[in-house]
Amino acid sequence: MPMAAPKPCAHPGCGQLVRDGTSRCSAHKVRPGSFADAGRGTRQERGYGAAWDRLRRRILVRDGGLCQPCLQAGHTTAAQAVDHIVNKATWRRRHGSLKGCDDEGNLQSICNDCHRQKTDREKRGEA
User: Would the keyword Nuclease turn up in this protein's UniProt record (predicted)?
Assistant: First the structure.
């Protein structure tokens, strides 16, 4: 069987070449039974279970599958995600709980580029 071409480990800052066809070197592989980011918890623990999946589909249909920030900027881009307009951390700070955070009025369809930029602005405290 042919071997995959070596490629750099996907772990940020690691330059180790991976030759086994996976994306991470042996030092950075996710171990069976472990979670990639234990500090964040599972998607269900963070509120992204089956109910979120249903709500996400409803928002994407509502917004016609189009990125709302792109539409506001005057161009059309397909949305891949649903975003909390007021993020969960800010919502909890303002309201004392997450009650109402997942209301449809606080959700928008968004493309990956806009979502990444918005998240970066929020991390820098600009949004």
Answer: yes
pTM of the model: 0.67
Token couple for 60: 């994407």
Max CA separation in the chain (angstroms):
58
pLDDT (tens digit, 9 = 90+) per residue, 12-23? 888 899 988 888
**Closest among 66, 69, 77 to 115, alpha carbons compared:** 69
Percent pLDDT > 90 in the chain is: 58
Give the start-to-end residue ranges of the domains of the chain: 1-37, 50-123
Residues 6+ apart with CB under 8 A from 22: 29
Give the tokens for residue 77.
């881009």
